[in-house]
Amino acid sequence: MDNKVMYSLSYGLFVLSARRGDKDNGCIxxxxxxxxxxxxxxxxxxxxxxxxxxxVKETGRFTVSILSxxxxxxxxxxFGFQSGRDVDKFxxxxxxGKDADGIxxxxxxxxxxxxxxxxxxTDLGTHTLFLADVLDGGVLSxxxxxxxxxxxxHIKPKPAAAPAPSEKKRWICTVCGYVYEGDExxxxxxxxxxxHPASDFELLA
Length: 205
Prior knowledge:
mainly beta; seven-stranded antiparallel beta sheet
């Protein structure tokens, strides 16, 4: 199967944030969907490898910042291409607000935020699906929400011009633009920036 077929599914992009003790953290996610209006509930799916996943699972609380078309790549790099286990993603980042429980949400490059409380958690293997009540929220701007297609076409940097010919083959990550050089791309290779698998790499001419 051509794994790129999955790129045709339309979905938004979000910063999922949590707070545990005095530690704030957030990650990029592509799954936040309203499932009922009364009660007002959403579901989010979070990769178990994300530090934010563990914080949400332990505390049962999170915020969702809805990314807009005004978001820049630096925002994606901050919350998507590094781990909260290694860095404080909110350090030096002034564009935040906080919900009633002190959980941060992003106010730049976003058009709205939601504050949520987990109702149930379902194990999906690599991910956990959290069903949550929406407790609070607010509209931040009228900018359209960013979809994955918009991110690919307008936010993600285009590949740099190819350097002088090299004896090694080069593969580019179609998600973040990282280039791997080597004789072969290992089947189990994981992009060091965005953590996507080898199936998301293309061989450069």
